[in-house]
């Protein structure tokens, strides 16, 4: 069985169509379809069903997907077996939105300079989504908010930084936090997100529900909106917040919780971890 055909099948399942998978694999849709037929012939099972332009995996295909993913991972990592540092193969990194701007650029720079043989891919997402992809072995590591529960032994979380919760309002606003809360609408850091959960109780105690404009799991978008004069918010002070000159940050010492950014990973080498966290 040609492992390239397995990669093509995984691309089809992920993309949902032969055409999209073909673009990813740099093939023609006809070549993609031929590879799928070859796999189906070798396995004696139908692996996908077509409905117009869309393609969906069959139950037989879903039952073997975890094994196929592991095969793809092992094949991709063969090159790293000849490199004691573990930096010669692919590294699949996830990052929440703030880490994409705060952390990922320097990570790319270090890998380019110190690990040119590595193939680094970066996937954006929420902490919950990235953690799920780590569990499913679709990612090797991710910058995310520390999970609010005990993680399995297969996942290691390394502390990166603590980000205190602060109030953000438009630059030049001289009002007290109490006055701002009374007079303005709040853009609330999504209370269902791991970071937003940290301030849910404080918000319920201090901000009437009628004064909440919206809930959003995107602190950068919240800060930008506030900078345009749209209300205020209580969000973590990530490093990039200092670069937004359109907003003013106000310390809230009464909120003891901080958002903890961690590097969660599965079995990364010491050298890989060093380049990711430095």
UniProtKB/TrEMBL annotation:
- The superkingdom listed in its UniProt entry is Bacteria
> Start and end of every HTH lysR-type domain?
1-58
PROSITE patterns per the record?
HTH_LYSR
Is Transcription set as a keyword in this record?
yes
List GO molecular-function terms, semicolon-separated: DNA-binding transcription factor activity; transcription cis-regulatory region binding
- SUPFAM superfamilies in the record, alphabetically? Periplasmic binding protein-like II, Winged helix' DNA-binding domain
Alphabetical keyword list:
DNA-binding, Transcription, Transcription regulation
Q: Write down the PANTHER family for this protein, in alphabetical order.
A: HTH-TYPE TRANSCRIPTIONAL REGULATOR, LYSR FAMILY TRANSCRIPTIONAL REGULATOR
Protein name in the entry: LysR family transcriptional regulator
Gene source species: Pararhodobacter oceanensis
């Amino acid at each position: 069985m040609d492992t390239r055909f397995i990669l093509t099948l995984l691309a089809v399942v992920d993309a949902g169509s032969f055409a999209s998978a073909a673009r990813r694999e740099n093939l023609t849709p006809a070549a993609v379809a031929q590879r799928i037929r070859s796999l189906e012939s070798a396995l004696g099972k139908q692996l996908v069903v077509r409905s117009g332009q869309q393609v969906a995996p069959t139950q037989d295909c879903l039952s073997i997907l975890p094994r196929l993913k592991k095969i793809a991972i092992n094949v991709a990592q063969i090159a790293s077996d000849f490199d004691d540092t573990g930096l010669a193969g692919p590294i699949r990194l996830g990052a929440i939105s703030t880490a994409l701007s705060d952390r990922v650029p320097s990570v790319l720079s270090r890998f380019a300079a110190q690990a040119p043989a590595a193939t680094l891919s970066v996937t954006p997402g929420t902490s919950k989504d990235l953690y799920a992809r780590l569990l499913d072995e679709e990612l090797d590591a991710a910058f995310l908010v520390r999970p609010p529960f005990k993680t399995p032994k297969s996942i290691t979380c390394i502390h990166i930084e603590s980000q205190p919760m602060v109030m953000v309002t438009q630059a030049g606003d001289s009002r007290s936090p109490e006055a701002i809360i009374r007079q303005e609408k709040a853009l609330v850091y999504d209370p269902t997100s791991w970071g937003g959960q940290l301030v849910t109780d404080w918000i319920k105690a201090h901000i009437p529900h009628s004064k909440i404009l919206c809930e959003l799991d995107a602190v950068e978008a919240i800060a930008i909106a506030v900078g345009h004069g749209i209300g205020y918010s209580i969000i973590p002070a990530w490093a990039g917040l200092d670069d937004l000159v359109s907003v003013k940050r106000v310390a809230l010492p009464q909120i003891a919780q901080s958002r903890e950014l961690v590097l969660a990973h599965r079995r990364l080498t010491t050298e890989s971890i060093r380049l990711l966290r430095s």
